[in-house]
TrEMBL record:
It is found in: Cytoplasm. Pfam families: EPSP_synthase. This is UDP-N-acetylglucosamine 1-carboxyvinyltransferase. The modification 2-(S-cysteinyl)pyruvic acid O-phosphothioketal is found at C121. GO terms for cellular component: cytoplasm. The keyword Cytoplasm applies. UDP-N-acetyl-alpha-D-glucosamine binds at R97, D311, V333. GO terms for molecular function: UDP-N-acetylglucosamine 1-carboxyvinyltransferase activity. It catalyses: phosphoenolpyruvate + UDP-N-acetyl-alpha-D-glucosamine = UDP-N-acetyl-3-O-(1-carboxyvinyl)-alpha-D-glucosamine + phosphate. Its EC number is 2.5.1.7. Residues 7-428 form the Enolpyruvate transferase domain. The active site is at C121 (proton donor). It comes from Dermabacter vaginalis. Cell wall formation. Adds enolpyruvyl to UDP-N-acetylglucosamine.
């Protein structure tokens, strides 16, 4: 366990790094392997702690895993899926929310599933009511007990007509992973359609599923009796790519992010262009650089795809502290994802948070006492400080701030960043950052 991480800021990040598969697809594709009767094979798998957690969770359920971390390959053999002890699930799940997505596949394979107390980043209350409602819609029984939630489906699972109150990524994945082998047809209205979900649909189709996506964000799934394994290359991590882009720009640097893919990052690239950042898009990656002409402010609102994704918000806010003028950020996906700004203010930023919906539209958090809008007054020089990583994206954003700050910052809890940023220490070294650990 690392005790402290120190960054001496002010050096431009320069050079090239590579991003591999998206954290938010890899874990779901791994769960999908449980549904197959034969082996599945995933490539471009990043070496992040979330992959280690899901591997262990699969192992305790009897799945054989072979992994080559360097090559980024993962072979999963689900031919002997078995019940796991709740204590083992609990021990391996740690702070991850992924066990909730095991429910559909385990109900199909074993007729029962258990969800321990869930964690995940503390960026809002993050309830699981949509997931439980979805499972009930398929005919599962949900029993909340002291140490977890026990789910059974003694009569099997049946396709259903479902409408999500909000296009939740996880609930959409829950429907997909359950419906593909449920009896009959499932129609899901108001589904989330993030690129990671489309990639999961591609994985499931490779396994033999029948899934269609309508233009009105309705997904129709025709259940099949049997699925096979798959071979799939994960789509690149667009959150990691955007995070390095912001790090390059905050430090007035020049970084080529190999593997970054334009298609899934369009909204982010538009914002960077509009504020005056240097963006060169290539087939094999994207170059992000300081043009030397300064940045202008922006008004952004986070939203489900194809809107500006919430996971880009935190790194972008750090960048906006360096832009000329007043920027407005309206967070509409999580009610509590702006708490990280107070430490940025301690570093010299000028960010004010508001309960009101600032910007274009009213969201479900308006008038409900959540500080979910921010006004960022820039440019403000940042100075080194002692900071503690609050959550995964907030943590990387503090790292970006420290890299751009004058003086030395001490960051506590840096290991949390390993959950979603592969070999970030090696990448920092490659880009010339000045940091050390004690
Ligand atoms: C996924 O979380 C991602 N995580 C998140 O990335 C990402 O921020 C989020 O989608 C939105 O894009 C993974 O893929 C592992 P949601 P998920 O269900 O599926 C509310 C990162 O840093 N909600 O779309 O958990 C919820 O509270 C992480 O990589 C309910 O009310 O997100 C939130 O306000 C963080 N009830 C909204 O919906 C529910 O049962 C959207 O959440 C479920 C969700």
């Amino acid at each position: 366990m690392t005790s402290s991480f120190y960054v001496r800021g002010g050096k431009p990040l320069e050079g090239e790094i590579t991003v591999r598969g998206a954290k938010n697809l890899v874990s779901k594709a791994m769960v999908a392997a449980l549904l197959g009767e034969t082996e599945s094979f995933l490539t471009s798998v990043p070496d992040i702690s979330d992959v280690r957690i899901v591997s262990e969770l699969l192992r305790v359920h009897g799945v054989k895993i072979e992994r080559d971390k360097e090559a980024g390959t993962l072979r999963m053999d689900p031919s002997n899926v078995e019940r796991a002890h709740v204590a083992d699930i609990d021990a391996h799940a740690g702070s991850s929310r992924i066990p909730i997505l095991f429910c559909g596949p385990l109900l199909h394979r074993l007729g029962e599933a258990v969800i321990p107390d869930l964690g995940g980043c503390r960026i809002g209350t993050r309830p699981i009511n949509y997931h439980l409602d979805v499972l009930r819609n398929f005919g599962a029984h949900v029993d909340k007990r002291e140490h977890g939630i026990y789910i059974t489906a003694p009569d099997g699972l049946r396709g259903a007509k479902i409408r999500l109150e909000y296009p939740s990524v996880g609930a959409t994945e829950q429907v997909l992973l359950t419906a593909v082998r449920a009896q009959g047809i499932t129609e899901l209205e108001n589904a989330a359609v993030e690129p990671e979900i489309e990639d999961l649909i591609a994985v499931l189709q490779k396994m033999g599923a029948i899934i269609s996506l309508r233009t009105d964000r309705t997904i129709v799934i025709e259940g099949v009796e049997k699925l096979n394994g798959y071979r799939h290359r994960c789509l690149p991590d667009r959150i990691e790519a955007a995070s390095w882009a912001c790090a390059a720009l905050v430090t007035h640097g020049d970084v080529f992010v190999r593997g970054a893919e334009q298609k899934a990052m369009g909204t982010f690239l538009n914002v960077l262009r509009k504020i005056g950042a240097g963006v060169d898009i290539h087939d094999d990656g994207i170059r992000f650089y300081d043009t030397g002409e300064g940045l202008s402010s922006a008004a952004i609102e986070t939203d489900v795809h194809p809107g500006f994704m919430t996971d880009w918000q935190q790194p972008l806010v750090v960048l906006l502290t360096q832009a000329n003028g007043i920027s407005i950020v309206h967070e509409t996906v999580y009610e509590n994802r702006l708490g990280f700004t107070s430490a940025l203010n301690d570093m010299g930023a000028q960010i004010q948070v508001y309960r009101e919906c600032l910007g274009g539209s009213r969201c479900r958090f308006g008038q409900r006492n959540y500080n979910h809008s921010a006004v960022v007054n820039g440019p403000r020089p940042l100075k080194g400080a002692e900071i503690t990583v609050p959550d995964l994206r907030g943590g990387f954003s503090y790292l970006i701030a420290a890299l751009g700050a004058d003086g030395t910052s001490q960051i506590h809890g840096i290991d949390l960043i390993d959950r979603g940023y592969e070999s970030f220490r090696d990448k920092l070294t490659k880009l010339g950052a000045d940091f050390w650990e004690e």
